[in-house]
Design brief:
Helix content: 10-25%
Shape: elongated
Number of helices: 3
Radius of gyration: 26 Å
Structural class: mainly beta
Strand content: 35-45%
Distance between the termini: 74 Å
Order of helices and strands: EEEEEEEEEEEEEEEHEHHEE
CATH topology of the largest domain: OB fold (Dihydrolipoamide Acetyltransferase, E2P)
Strand order of the largest sheet: 3-2-1-4-5
Number of domains: 4
CATH superfamily of the largest domain: Nucleic acid-binding proteins
Mean pLDDT: 91
Largest sheet: 5 strands, antiparallel
Length: 277
């Protein structure tokens, strides 16, 4: 069976002036055209070719030897080639660009930027892109607790936290309690796996394990104190909002790291100020 939107190996069943016809076997009744400009040299009847099946400008199934950055049901980062009155057009590696309709944009995109999008078929059976990638992400990642991974942020805010597409294909979440700092849709982020849920989705954190993170946070606090010429204008009872603004960490992490610096004799803590010794 010919699979629209997928790469598959097909047999050359007939050669014509305008290309070759491909099928699952030489006597296959269901065939698809690979245009002449795509046909490799010295190809003959019976040869196997790996091709991608999509729709041409007249919505006819056609084969190409080009490899798209994402197949049907997959997500990938794609460049916005242009923005029109119906949406944006993405470069997904094929001659015909991929339409990203306005209704499938989680924010308005601009020409030249790169966005994470998944490929789907609309009601008219045409390929389109969507920035609502959650349903298209996989849950069979090879990662385990304390692995470090890279992903693309595709949703922020709300009650859950920051949603991340790990390797642009696996489902991950930075829980709200861990999501201190500033996050923007489209940013690439390096995070640590804190757990794998029974359904395969990944729990993530921008922080290292507690001991390692305390050292990192302590160094950050000293750097910020230096930027204030050695004296912070607030004490350890400062609000979580101020801590997040100044350091990009949680209040609990701030207190742990500050306590370490105090025990090491590197800072003194007053009611309304913290200073470097």
């Amino acid at each position: 069976m010919l699979q629209l939107g997928k790469r598959q190996k097909l047999t050359v069943v007939k050669r014509v002036k305008f290309g070759v016809y491909l099928g699952e076997k030489e006597d296959a009744a269901e065939r698809v055209l690979l245009p002449a400009k795509e046909v490799p040299e010295d190809v003959k009847k019976g040869d196997m070719l790996e091709v991608f099946l999509y729709l041409d400008s007249q919505d006819r199934m056609i084969a190409t030897c080009r490899e798209p950055v994402a197949e049907l049901g997959q997500a990938a980062v794609m460049k916005v080639k242009e923005v029109s009155g119906i949406g944006a057009f993405l470069d997904w590696g094929l001659e015909k660009d991929l339409l990203l309709p306005f209704k499938e944009q989680t924010r308005r995109v601009e020409q030249g930027e790169e966005v994470l999008a998944a490929v789907y078929l609309d009601k008219s059976h045409r390929f389109c892109g969507t920035m609502n990638v959650y349903p298209y992400l996989r849950t069979d990642s090879p990662y385990k607790k304390d692995d470090h991974v890279t992903g693309t942020i595709y949703e922020t805010g709300g009650d859950f936290g920051v949603f991340v597409a790990v390797d642009n294909c696996y489902s991950g979440l930075i829980p709200k309690r861990e999501a201190t700092g500033r996050y923007r849709v489209g940013d690439s982020i390096r995070v640590r796996v804190t757990g794998v849920k029974p359904d395969g989705k990944l729990d993530l954190s921008p922080n290292e394990r507690v001991e390692m993170q305390m050292d990192k946070d302590a160094a950050l606090i000293l750097k910020v104190i230096d930027s204030y010429e050695g004296v912070l204008p607030f004490g350890e009872k400062v609000s979580p909002e101020v801590i997040n603004r100044e350091f990009g960490i949680s209040k609990a992490a701030f207190k742990r790291a500050l306590g370490r610096l105090y025990k090491q004799g590197l800072v003194d803590i007053g009611e309304n100020r913290i200073w470097k010794k």
